[in-house]
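Quick look at the format.
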Amino acid sequence: MRDPGPGAEPEPPRPREELRVAKAPTIYDVARRAGVSKSLVSLVLRGSSRVSDEKRAAVLTAVAELDYTPSRLAAGLAGSRTRSVGVVIDEFENLWFAPVLAGLRASLGGYSLSVADAALNAHLGLDPVEAFRSLRVDGLVLAGEVPEAAVQRLGIPAVVLGTRSMLLPGAPLVASDERAGGRLATAHLAELGHRDIVCLSATGASSAAREAGYREEMGERGLAPRVLRAARTTESAAFAAAAGLFEAARGGAAPPAPSAVFAVNDPMAVGVIGAARARGIEVPCGLAVVGYDDSPIAAYETLSLTSVSGDPRELGEVAGRALRELLADAAGPVPAGASGGAREPVPAELGRDAAPGRAAPAPAALLPPRLIVRRSSGA
């Protein structure tokens, strides 16, 4: 700028020119262009043989079109393991999850477990899978309902634990045969002489499977099924539903109260017992009750609840071992220029479009249930 000289007006400041920098393409841009997951792009860039020729060509074409250059720093960070596993459960109020988590801890020694409550996250408008993305967990155990697409986007090894509405490609299923469990509970009550047996159910794949077993057993015995639905699978929701049932029967506005109730989980069975006692109905003399999951409360002397056991601790242990195998399978060679143990995530696409000779893992286990008989059923 020239000197204006004494007494001259200073020149007004010139407007600063905006510096526009073109945004460098990222691995996510490549994934979107190729129509695949970020993890599959990573496998292609590492030269993995586990990707089909069609997917490999799509990724390489996208790389060329976008002029994408992988970041060596990002590759090094992505290759490191966090030695952590994310666990999604339906809700902490369901006591079934306590022994499941104990089984997971027993079989996933050396890994830290982070637990997310799917019901609470949904209430808050949050996605637990996205939270685990920021934590960079090595794998997932899905013991609660989550969006399937979110898990596939994350692209890491996962195991589905329990009867769920989702069946993820490449994710082993570890579950108890809950339809058989529903039949066990119903058969037990029928063999004790009960003919009017109500099933207290709720929403969810697990409840539906147990209810289906009840319906099958009732049908084979020539008995008419009566299903009562609670708003949730909780003690309070079951109490409200059962109280309504008993009140309607007392007022003559509905069929008589049943002689037995099969509740699709133990907290719901506790709610039924509470509602019965509040109306002077003694258990088991006036009402036989069977629950499901054989949670710790079932064995309490004051409750003594007959319950179907799917052995949740064993389910947790089997699920943990299945995830360990997937994590070991996902660990690939260390990329050039990276240090430490590399991880090579298993993209969702590999479950349905794997390279020849590499099939998706089969379901890991379907464990048979057993009935634990206590006083509540009057046996």
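Next, a different chain entirely:
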Amino acid sequence: MPKTLPNASALSVHKRRDHTGAQTCPECQKTLPNASALSVHKRRDHTGAQTCPECQKALSNAKALSVHKTKYHTGAQTCPECQKTLPNAQALSDHKTKYHTGAQTCPECQKTLPNAQALSDHKRRDHTRAQTCPECQKPLPNAKALSDHKRRDHTGVQTCSQCQKTLPNAQALSRHKRRDHTGAQTCPECQKTLPNAQALSSHKRRDHTGAQTCPECQKTLPNAQALSVHKRRDHTGAQTCPECQKTLPNAQGLSRHKRRDHTRAQTCPECQKTLPNTQALSAHKTKYHTGTQTCPECRKTLSNAQALSSHKRRDHSGAQTCPECQKTLPNAQALSVHKRRDHTGAQTCPECQKTLPNAQALSDHKRQHRKRKIAALDKDNEISPPADKVNKSDYQGKLSD
């Protein structure tokens, strides 16, 4: 369509600029459609370096300066979609390109992301090759994992602001806060109050697991805590006491042994008797400080449990047979006396050197010696009381002469 110019001069200028045919730039050899385009090209691209008057940035030419101003020195811009304020037109353009592109699908895993920026972050984090941490050489599956690892584990020592505890890194600090500074927690099962989430977690894991069966002895324990204690005490294998080298069947036995046998000397608070250890003191009290005891078989009253035990063992053991002569005795006490008198072996009288078959015979023999001495004394003093009437105490001094 013919262009209309206001006068002959304008027509002449128009022809000179726009209808000269293609023109080649002598500096860069770029071909322009006409003289006017060549002039604009030279003015923009071959003016030499230009400095932005607002930020002092150096641009290669006038065109670059113009583009720079259009992008960065437009003043604040508001996003028409989310009303976010951006510092300039370029920032607004970048913002739109990243956040207002609509949902994007990852071509590698088909995950849907809300916008192009999210897709870019996703690819950079999750679809990079395996990464190695430059600080600890730990292999991570992708850049995201490496980034998280660095942020958690290589932050340097961290101090808890609440208790001043020092943790090796941010991850440990985060875990510490989550476990120890949550405030008191109440167990939903037993209503027990625990000081923090960590204590509650441990409590549940130990006390509310339900009945547990020991895999070694099949004993049923009420919960995991009881099972743990049981294993630690009863299934540790034989243990040797470091003080006396005695071998105990397990840790529980060793603990009980130490408590009983390797405590310091103990004094009985009732009779002031000194016992070598706690076990001895306990046994002493059980035997001697139980108060009077009544024998259930003969109603005899004994001074304490030990006396009752000895009484039962001696007098209520039932008939006993002597293993040497097969004589039957009424009880263990009678058997003991019988053995002590009749089965001691041959005995020699110290006065006449006569050999007697046993202690009982020796005792009877000595009694005859005493009777003869008494008779001789009676004769010397012209005293002749019947033998069965003799008062031994009257002659005790003379017999010992």
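Residues 234 and 250 are 5 Å apart (CA to CA).

See the schema section for token definitions.
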